[in-house]
Structure formats: structure tokens, C-alpha cells
Amino acid sequence: MIINKETISQLASQGKRLDGRGLLDYRDPIKVDLNISWTAEGSAKVQIGNTVVMAGVKMAIEKPYNDTPDEGGISVNAELLPLSSPEYEPGPPGIKAVELARVTDRGIRESKAIDVKKLCITPGEKAWFVTIDLITINDSGNLFDACALAALAALKSAQFPKVDPATGAIDYHTKTGEKLPLLKEPVVVTVYKINGSFMVDPNHEEEGAYDARLSVASDERGIISALQKGGAEPLSLEEISQMVDIALDKAKFLRKVLNSELNMRD
Question: What's the CA gap between 54 and 181, in Å, rounded?
């Protein structure tokens, strides 16, 4: 069934949604599965409603950048698989994939979630570099929050691979049990504005009706590390303040769900 934008917009102004949720309710279920890939140093699959994404963490030893000789580094890539939506096609990353990777990357990087100095092995010569790959399995809306949650879960599960002290060769088949030096746990919550009302976790149809959105990355202390605005309609300072408050509150909820899921698997 095709739902038009006007119907969704009218319902939002009345505080309603087609699926019966409140405007600030996430879809069920929210599931987190760890270590889904034996080839990655850390991996996770996250499901929010019918949206499913995977994240994999790979580590490599490389030469540090000249301006940060005593630090390792991180990078985030996103791939929107055609199997996850008929809107996606094979080929180089499009605008949506680039923005998805950027939002996830900034939440981690700007919060200084990873102690990059502890990734350094030999200043100016060797350091660990961490790559997070995001892959969509089913896009049913709200990829921003799902991907950021999957990235965090994968980072928390990641272990350094064994390194031969004599040759420096990495044995990717053997994990040391040593975890990444995580200092903070950034969670992204994206708040959407539709016809003057705010909502979280839109499904695919609702995403097609929004006027503006704001992705807010915050850590467990409620400190904001990154903001990303989307949509054609401008936002007032008052609206931004309201959206940030919503995001901080829902971040507590997502973090609680994540930690509960991880504790069940310990």
C-alpha cells in the first residue's frame, strides 16, 4: 500500500502514526547480535523494526600521519546494498551512503571515543588504524541510528589480532582478547520534523515525508559530539533545542537497550 506524504503529515500534526506508535517511540524489536563475522576483528548486526544493518571492524598496522605521529586512526565506510532497497544500485557510494558514513564517523571521532594515542605502536612508524564498514541488509527507515548503534556494538566487541613480534606480520585468524581502548560510547539519535511535530525512528514511508531532520551524537554523560542537519526546511534555535533534548533522552534509551543486549550475551 502506498501512503502519501499528506496523510503522514496530517497524522503527525495530531501526534499519531500509521503503525500506532507514539511520535517518540522506537519500533520493536531492537536487537543486537555480536561477532557475526569471523573475518572481522569485531562485528555486529543491529535490527530496529524491519531495518537491519551490519557493521564490521578491521584493524591494520600503518604509518601514522605526519601531523599526528603518535596516533592511530579511524575511518568509516558505508555500502547501501541493492538487496536492502530497490532504490539502491551497485557502484560507487552515493550521497546517502557518504552522509551515513559521515554521521557515524563524526559521532565516534569528535567524541574521541577511541584513545587513538594508545593505537600507536612506534611513533612516526607504526600505529593501528581502525576501519568500520557499514552494510545495509534491509532499509526500512532510520539507517542513521541503526548504523551508529551497530558501529558502537562492533567496536565494543572488537579484539586486536595477534602480531608476530619477530616479523610484524598480523595473524588475523588469532585474536588476543585485548579490546580497543574505548573511552566513550557515542550514540546517534535522529529527530525528524514533520508538519511541525517531532518524531524518532521513522519507517520508510515517514522518511519520505519529513521537512527537516537533526542527527545528534552524544556520549553516556550526555555530552554532544556532533550534529548533522538534513532536509530542505530551516530549523529555529528553539526547534533545535527541542530536538536535541529529545535526542539526548532517547540516547539513554538506546544505550540501555544496547548494554542490556550485550550483557545477555556475556
Answer: 22
CA distance 209 to 164: 54
Asked if residues 139 and 145 have their Cβ atoms less than 8 Å apart, the reply is no
Domain region containing 107? 5-264
Residue 72: is it exposed, middle or buried by C-beta count within 10 angstroms (0-12/13-18/19+)?
Answer: buried
> CA–CA separation, 196 vs 11, rounded Å?
11
Summarize pLDDT for 224-252 with one digit per residue, the tens.
999 999 999 999 999 999 999 999 999 99
Element spanning 146, H or E: helix 143-157
pLDDT at 254: 96
- Residue type at 154 in one-letter notation: A
Residue 181: partners with Cβ closer than 8 Å, 6 or more residues away: 114, 115, 118, 119
For residue range 209-229, what is the model confidence (pLDDT) as tens digits?
999 999 999 999 999 999 999
Q: Which residues pair with 77 in a beta bridge?
A: 133
Number of domains in the chain: 1
- The model's pTM is 0.96
Domain with 117 in it: what CATH number? Answer: 3.30.230.70
Query: Which regions in the chain score pLDDT beneath 70?
Result: 1-3, 265-266
Place of cell 567524541: 111
